[in-house]
């Protein structure tokens, strides 16, 4: 806020200085060039004809000589013609009109600047000042931070979006807490359930080890009991594995229709300049501008994930998008040079938290391709990857509308 005040004050002072300087210039110069030219022409006429008629000189108002040479309260200048001095009076009405017109224009501009500064302060600076601490509080985990409602069209949608973000963070926090609670209860329950068959296994194993069972039938029964209890433990372990492998992320997809060119325009706007700065050649092959049946935002998210992966795991020389059609679907392929992934790893790359052998020194969590696979499945499409001539290629199969 203080910075804006200083900037506004500097603008006002500068504009006032410009107005003052322009007025000084106009008052000093004015129409002096015009009336001096006319006075010179009048002197030439007097020199040639002796006539002091000023009807052809609109800026001159009178010509006097003799005793009246210096008796005047008007604007005048002295000229010499035919060895005689003359007082030539002139008018400044034209100059005054010019100064007045210029000042009116400058005053209107000054008023417009003041109105603009007030508008910016009231509709942008002040609302932003009330909101600038909200992201910090949300980052600290303070989801109860008040977010003031703004009627301004500039910030109304912004505050609405921040409120949605807060609700999303709160919802995710509640889901995480619920998952943690359920996981803890599951582990406690399974741990308790495992103890019973484990104790039976230990008792039977000790009895067999010490030779307490002399009868063959009892030894066989003890072995069968151990096997049965082991099956129970195996069942519990399977439940743990199943719980761990269940989806831990929820995805919402709103199916709709979108032109392919609209999706590609979003990608180009986001990545073309960024990749050009880093020296990566970004190419988009020729395509038919078809209508895709998908969630436009989710499809763009998938393509962004693939391009981000190409940036992280490629060699930085080239990233390209190519297109094909097959069985009523549009095939969109994102490829990058410098593939160091082995083909035997391709079946696992779409699993959650899986990271390939080429990700050793690259930050990540192994969820990008997993998310793409889940989203494409929910949109009725597919995704697959292959390696072609040392280029890593990931293809999205999107249904046509």
Automatic annotation (TrEMBL):
CDD domains: HATPase, HisKA. It is a multi-pass membrane protein. Keywords: Kinase, Membrane, Phosphoprotein, Transferase, Transmembrane, Transmembrane helix, Two-component regulatory system. Residues 189-401 form the Histidine kinase domain. SUPFAM superfamilies: ATPase domain of HSP90 chaperone/DNA topoisomerase II/histidine kinase (SSF55874), Homodimeric domain of signal transducing histidine kinase (SSF47384). Coiled coil: none annotated. One of its GO terms (cellular component) is membrane. It catalyses: ATP + protein L-histidine = ADP + protein N-phospho-L-histidine. It comes from the Bacteria. Its EC number is 2.7.13.3. GO terms for molecular function: phosphorelay sensor kinase activity. The chain crosses the membrane at residues 7-27, 100-120. Its main location: membrane. This is histidine kinase. The lineage of its organism: Bacteria, Bacillati, Bacillota, Clostridia, Eubacteriales.
């Amino acid at each position: 806020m203080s910075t804006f005040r200083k900037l506004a004050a500097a603008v006002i002072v500068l504009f006032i200085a410009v107005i003052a300087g322009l007025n000084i210039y106009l008052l000093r110069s004015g129409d002096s060039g015009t009336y001096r030219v006319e006075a010179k022409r009048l002197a030439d006429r007097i020199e040639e004809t002796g006539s002091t008629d000023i009807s052809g000189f609109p800026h001159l108002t009178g010509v006097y000589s003799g005793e009246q040479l210096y008796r005047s309260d008007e604007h005048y200048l002295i000229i010499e013609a035919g060895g005689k001095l003359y007082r030539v009076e002139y008018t400044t009405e034209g100059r005054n009109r010019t100064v007045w017109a210029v000042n009116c224009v400058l005053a209107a501009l000054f008023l417009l600047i003041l109105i603009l500064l007030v508008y910016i302060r009231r509709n942008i600076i002040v609302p932003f000042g009330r909101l600038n601490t909200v992201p910090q509080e949300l980052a600290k985990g303070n989801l109860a931070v008040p977010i003031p409602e703004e009627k301004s069209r500039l910030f109304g949608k912004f505050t609405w979006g921040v409120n949605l973000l807060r609700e999303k963070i709160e919802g995710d926090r509640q889901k995480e807490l619920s998952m943690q609670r359920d996981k803890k209860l599951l582990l406690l329950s399974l741990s308790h359930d495992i103890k019973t068959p484990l104790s039976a296994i230990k008792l039977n194993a000790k009895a067999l080890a010490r030779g307490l069972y002399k009868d063959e039938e009892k030894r066989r029964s003890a072995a069968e009991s151990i096997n049965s209890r082991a099956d129970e433990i195996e069942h519990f372990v399977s439940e743990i594995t199943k719980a761990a492998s269940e989806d831990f992320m929820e995805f919402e997809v709103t199916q709709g229709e979108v032109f392919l060119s609209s999706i590609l325009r979003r990608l180009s706007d986001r990545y073309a300049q960024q990749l050009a700065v880093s020296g990566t050649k970004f190419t988009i092959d020729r395509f038919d501008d078809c209508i895709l049946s998908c969630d436009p935002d989710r499809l763009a998210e998938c393509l962004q994930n693939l391009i981000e992966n190409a940036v992280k795991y490629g060699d930085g020389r080239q990233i390209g998008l190519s297109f094909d059609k097959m069985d009523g679907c549009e095939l969109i392929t994102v490829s990058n040079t410098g593939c160091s992934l082995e083909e035997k790893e391709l079946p696992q790359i779409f699993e959650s938290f899986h990271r390939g052998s080429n990700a050793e020194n690259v930050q990540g969590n192994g969820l990008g391709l997993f998310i793409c696979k889940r989203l494409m499945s929910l949109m009725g499409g597919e995704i697959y990857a292959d390696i072609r001539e040392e280029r890593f290629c990931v293809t999205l199969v999107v249904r046509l509308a």
